Amino acid sequence: MINNKNMKRTKIVATLGPASSSPEVIEGMIKAGADVCRINFSHGAYDKVEEQIKTIREINKKLGTHTAILADLQGPKLRIGVVENNHVELVDGKEVIITTVECMGTAERLYITYPQFPKDVRVGENILIDDGKLLLETVSTNGTDEVRAIVRHGGILSSKKGVNLPNTKVSLPCLTEKDLKDLDFALRQKVDWIGLSFVRSAADIIELKHLIKNFDPNIRSRVVAKIEKPEAILDIDNIIRETDALMVARGDLGVEVPMQEVPVLQKMMVKKCLEHSKPVIIATQMMESMITNISPSRAEVNDVANSVMDGADAVMLSGETSVGNHPIKVVEAMTKIIDHVEANSDIYNRDSEAPEVDLRNERFLSDSICFTAAKMAQRTKAAAVVTMTHSGYTAFKLASHRPKADIFVFTDNYDILTTLNLVWGVRGFYYDKNISTDHTIADIKHILKKSGMVKINDLVINIASIPLSEMGKANMIKLSAVE
Question: At what angle do helices 262-275 and 298-310 cross, to 10 degrees?
């Protein structure tokens, strides 16, 4: 059973795939430090995904862990179709016709999986293929089924490579027919988080949340907005307000916006998410070299470390764990980096001053309690802040203040334990006793002491709602020592 007090606070999201689909590898990654398993619906049949979900839940029972499941919808991913011999050379200065009529691709004619492309694209706009490795410029469009383009930077093109249109206003809906089927399947599996790709505005999040609520008003699946389009940056404040969590998807984002802007955008999004108490995941190419190598490059080590220092709730592995040669080793390496940064850098106690109190906000009392608890923990050097919650709200709020004290969350709502596993610093415990406040606090301290999370004379801060039986908003804070 994983119950070590000295566990990292920054969480790790590990993508499952052919290299990490077996129970042995999934268990190895969870033991090495994976907190969330990501299922990429761009690949994988439902029967295999169902088996993976079952495996994760069985491992959770076996290890006493609360590994979360993130179902990542593909979104309107634009691709080139199949090309001759899976190998076509696009030559600089040559003209290429891009058509919406399906055909075998050649150096002169390519098929694109985007029916509205000739209508949406404008002369002079760039067409980037294969993560920007190939660059074409639009010369003309007939507005129905053909676009003529000049190759500005050529190279070898293989089948089904992704297409990015950084200057084009893409009219495709955020959720494709495939996404709707995948969403239905994911909700039936009761996953913790749903990743929405290619978010352009807060309206995309509202639409997805509406679909989730219509599926089941009591559903607990929450939304992760993946930021990889320039339009999303323009509406970032509204997106953060509407979503439950954010993913900085640096792969497509780095192709869609000038690459030098991505580090600044990353820091901006992390900062805004902390201010709004929304978890934020940093994703793409974090430990890319470990797809084949047994250790990361020094630049990758710096990248992960900087994401932790920025204040990310989680860092994500994609190909490194899904198709890489060393899925368990890469999680171990990432855990080592996180542990070292958390022990040796000043990433705690982010708030310099108390936020303004808005008496019209129904959460102002809970928010004030969480802020005060974090400040009290800093002042008293408390070992832990313990919150009781039913909805998980105080856990999200408390974590956003980044206290150095451990955050222990006790809940009678078993379903949110896995959801909270994405949130920075949070360790969840199931607790369904309904006794007086003083007895509950004493009982919880006893549980933490018995499991080695706290020791005698440690100071502990408890947050709760009085009366406990009403499971209301947090309105009580108590500082006491472990006896």
Answer: 30
